[in-house]
Design goal:
Elements (H helix, E strand, L loop, with lengths): L2 H13 L3 H8 L3 H9 L7 H10 L4 H12 L14 H13 L5 H16 L1
C-alpha cells in the first residue's frame, strides 16, 4: 500500500463509501482504484488527485497533505547515482536489496537521518 492509497482508503472508510461507488463516481474502474490503493499502480496523476480532493471536498492543509502523499507514492522508485561517489551507489543498491526486510522502526530511523540531512 502507498501513502496515498492508505489515505484514500481511510477517507473512504470514514465516509462509508465503497471502492466500487467511488470508482464509478470518479470515472475509473474499481480495479484501477484497488490497484492504486494497494500500490500496484504508479503515482496517481495530478488530475486524478484533483478529482479525489473534489470528491471528498478536501481543501487547504489537508489538500496539500494529500497532494504530498501522492508525490510520495511511486511504488517503483529509481535512484540515479551517476556522477556520485561509489559509496552513494553502493548505498542505493544496498537499500534496494534490503528494504523489504526493514521494519517500520528501522525505516523511521533511516527517514530521520535523511530528514536531518535534508534540513542542512
Amino acid at each position: 500500500m502507498t501513502p496515498f492509497g492508505q489515505a484514500v482508503r481511510r477517507l473512504r472508510a470514514e465516509r462509508r463509501i465503497s471502492q466500487k461507488k467511488m470508482a464509478y463516481d470518479l470515472g475509473v474502474s474499481p480495479a484501477y482504484l484497488s490497484a492504486l490503493e494497494h500500490g500496484h499502480r504508479g503515482r496517481p496523476s495530478w488530475e486524478f488527485v484533483q478529482k479525489v480532493l473534489g470528491y471528498f471536498n478536501i481543501i487547504w492543509d489537508e489538500a496539500e497533505e494529500l497532494q504530498r502523499l501522492a508525490l510520495a507514492s511511486n511504488p517503483r522508485v529509481e535512484i540515479d547515482t551517476s556522477g556520485m561517489t561509489p559509496a552513494a551507489t553502493a548505498f542505493a543498491n544496498r537499500l534496494a536489496l534490503i528494504i523489504r526486510q526493514l521494519d517500520d522502526e528501522a525505516i523511521a530511523r533511516l527517514d530521520a537521518i535523511i530528514n536531518e540531512a535534508d534540513d542542512n
